[in-house]
Amino acid sequence: MESIPGIEIKDLGFNEDVTLEDILADIYLKDKGNLTLLGLTRESFEEPKSLGLGAIEGFDIRFTGKQFMEVTNEEGDREFIKSDVDGHAINISGSVFSEMFPFDIKNVQNLVKNYDAVLEVVSKWPGSEQKKNLKDDKGNEYNYYTLRIKN
């Protein structure tokens, strides 16, 4: 990440086991602002299946909703049930949330390059009192909003 021009890593966190899973990075982009990225992997700098955006320049991203999850029932068979979800980041690469942006976000470098355009979209999201609804083609439902981060 440090090889991307203009980035300063403010904080880096991860599970302290052999896998170093769930990498979280708070970064500052010179002359722009702050980003919080979650679920980072090596693929996050290539073409990842997901790229988690938790916050951008004072906007803390949140959602609630109902999402289908695969479970094993009492008979041992796999089935899908709809379950409540609550999130502190969205997948901005290849998800229903990524469709809100006027361009594809392919990786961390592409997100950094398009910082201003991403901020423009997220800054128009409602606060927690006026959540907006979003549905995907699988029947999952999300209510998205932002909380203002006070510096």
Task: Please tell me about this protein's structure.
With 151 residues, the chain is mainly β. It has one domain (7-148). The chain contains two helices and nine strands. Strands 1, 2, 3, 4, 5, 6, 7, 8 and 9 form a nine-stranded antiparallel beta sheet that branches. A hairpin with a 5-residue loop joins β5 and β6 (78-87). The chain is globular. The chain starts with 6 loop residues before the first strand and ends with a strand.
Features:
43% strand; 9-stranded antiparallel sheet; 151 residues; 9% helix; mainly beta; 2 helices
Give the termini distance in whole angstroms: 24 Å
- Overall form: globular
Percent of residues in β-strands: 35-45%
What class do helices, strands and sheet pairing give?
Answer: mainly beta
Helical content band: under 10%
On the 0-100 scale, what is the average pLDDT? 91
The helix tally amounts to 2
Radius of gyration: 16 Å
Please provide the count of β strands: 9
Poorly predicted regions: none
Return the string of H and E elements. EEEEEEEHHEE
Main sheet properties? 9 strands, antiparallel
Task: Outline the secondary-structure elements.
Elements: E1 7-13, E2 23-29, E3 33-40, E4 52-56, E5 59-72, E6 78-87, E7 90-91, H1 108-113, H2 115-122, E8 132-135, E9 141-148
Question: How would you sum up this structure in a few lines?
Answer:
By secondary structure, the chain is mainly beta. The protein has 2 helices and 9 strands. Strand 2 and strand 3 form a beta hairpin.
